[in-house]
Structure formats: structure tokens, C-alpha cells
Amino acid sequence: QVQLVESGGGLVQAGGSLSLTCAASGSIFAINAMGWYRQAPGKQRELVAVVNSGGETNYADSAKGRFTISRDGAKNTVHLRMNSLKPEDTAVYYCNADIETVVITTGDLMKRRYWGQGTQVTVSV
After folding, report:
1. Distance separating alpha carbons of residues 82 and 69, to the nearest angstrom
2. How confident is the model at residue 63 (pLDDT cuts 50, 70, 90)?
3. Pairing relation of β-strands 119-124 and 10-13?
4. What is the number of other CB atoms lying within 10 angstroms of the CB of residue 20?
């Protein structure tokens, strides 16, 4: 079983900062890309930032210059540092990861995208 668990959400005033962490656990063979998405009420889930296994990053335009994504390969974690937060950043933030696991019965590798349960970020005016 593989699980992604997010932490670090909360309430912050506009202009403030928050850090989110997502930890992957379970029978993991390898983790490829890890990323953060968010979903505001009444809106579709959207990409915030992603980092691949080589450390290359990609950000949504709304996150560029304010958010920083990073990962720790040894700990299977991904972090999102959010600065200069705006009320429009209010959303449930989800982490995801493209994870390879070993099929016990065959020894084959299986690739799948896993999602965390989400953590609320609320930015007040």
C-alpha cells in the first residue's frame, strides 16, 4: 500500500507564507514526478508546481516567483513553500506522485499516480 500524506495547511493573512509537506510511504520502488495541485470551491483542480526525479521544476504562472517546490529523495517527501500569499490562493492543496511499485506475484513494476487527501489553505484579506 502506498500513501501520500500532506501537512502544513492553515489560515494565513494575505502577504504571509505557508509551507506544505507531502510524505509518501509504503512499498515504493521509485518515485518519478511529484507535484502539487489545488482546487478552489467551484473550480477545477489545477496544477501549482511539479518537480521530476532529476530536480527539474515547472510552475503555474500564478505560482511563479512566489512558490518554491522541492523534494527530498531520501525521505520521499515533496515540499511547497508559498510566499506572498493572496486570497485567490485559497484552495484545498493536493500532492501527487508518480510511483513505481513491485507486483509481488510477478515481480513486474507497476506505475501509478497517487494522490494525497488534501490540505486546506485559506488566505484572508
Report:
1. 9
2. very high
3. parallel
4. 24
C-beta pairs of 11-14 under 8 Å, 24+ apart in sequence: 11/122, 11/123, 11/124, 12/85, 12/121, 12/122, 12/123, 12/124, 13/123, 13/124, 13/125, 14/85, 14/86, 14/87, 14/123, 14/124, 14/125
Residue 1 pLDDT:
87
Q: Which amino acid is at 53?
A: S
Residue 7 near residue 21 (C-beta atoms within 8 A): yes
CA dist 38 and 121 (Å) reads 9
State how far Cα 25 lies from the chain centre: 14
Is residue 125 within 8 A of residue 90, CB to CB? The reply is no
105: phi then psi, degrees, rounded to nearest 5: -75, -30
Whether 115 has a pLDDT exceeding 90, the answer reads: yes
> For residues 57 and 69, is the Cβ–Cβ distance under 8 A?
yes
Q: What is the mean pLDDT of residues 66-72?
A: 97
